[in-house]
Structure formats: C-alpha cells, structure tokens
Amino acid sequence: MNSSGKRFVYFLPFILLFTTSVAFYFFSTRFGQRPGYILGFVFYWLFWCIAIPFVLTGPKSIAALFKVHQPALGQNKIRNISFLVLPLILVYAYEFPKVIQQADTIIIISSTALSIINATAEEILWRGTFLKLMGQSSKWYVPFSSLGFAMWHFAPQIVFTNPNPGGSLSFVAVSFILGLFYSSVVKDTQSILLTTASHILFDFSGLGGRLYF
Question: Nearest to residue 63, comparing CAs of 77, 53, 71, 75?
C-alpha cells in the first residue's frame, strides 16, 4: 500500500461528492429522474465503490475484507451487537410499515437486489477501504469514514429529496450515525461481513425499488 493512496483517502469524500453530484445531475437532466437516478448510482458503485478500492488496495485485499476473525464479534461483543441491531429495530418499526403498503412482487425483488448491491459496495469503500488505508490504530478512521459516508448522501438527493421530516439534512445525519456504528464494528472486528449483512437489511427497509416501478 503506497503513501499516495493513504493521502488520497483524505480527499476522497470531497472528490466523490463532487463527481457523483455532477453525475446525478447530468443523468437526470439527460434521461429523466428515474433513469438518471439509477445511472448515478451505477457510476457510484462501479467507479467509486469497486474500481477505486481495487486500485488502492488490490483484489486480494477486497476479498480479505469479508474474512471473519476471532472473536467474530470483536472484543466489544455487546456494543457491536447493539450497533448492528439497533438501527434495524428503528427502521423496521418506523419506516418499513409505511413503505410495505406500496409494495408488490416487483418492488420486493428489485429492492432486495438494490440493497445487496448498494450495501456491499458501500461497505467495501467506506468501511473496508478506509480501514485498510487509514489503519486500525487510526483515531480518525471512525469519524472520518462516517463523515464521508454521510456527506455522499447529499448527491442522490439532487434527484429525489428525502420526504421525511428534516429533508436532506436529517437523511445525512442518520447516515452519519449509521456510519459511526458500522465503522466502530469494523474497526473492532477487522471485517465488513457483519456490517454488510446489517446494511443490506437496513437498505431493504426503505424498499428502494419503489423509485423505479
């Protein structure tokens, strides 16, 4: 891992926010809201969540991010379980009952696929790659990776703004808190496997397929 890659990670969130914002704006104005929205995410997934980690850390390092170390739940077992489960309890109590009423088979299937793709890609970038580049001992890893993860969520809201109270800011604030939880777990367990599973379930609770069908 070269030093330039370690330095680049501190600029990555700002460059990512700019480029993805441009992508969402361009695709939505060119192709319409719904196609532009998914194309913006495709750019984000392929370039920032897959290609950049591949270049910065290599394919073996990406695969190793999912390896389970012992103890599997880390040294702070109770805390880590709480950080993985508490967000799920909240979203399935608050958000899921509202959106499930609008769901059909296509929305369920598409939401499942989108959740798996998005959550896995984001964990590779924001939790895994940042840990590899910043180091497990870094005191800045948890707050900085969480801040970058939160900031990025402004970009897709160029197309579809969060309809819940607080709008864009509340959505970004929730993302920051979720990032703090997940980064803390990853720092302790040295694996993104558990956070990926929790993240998939978290994303599914919003049934993102509703935006396309």
Answer: 53
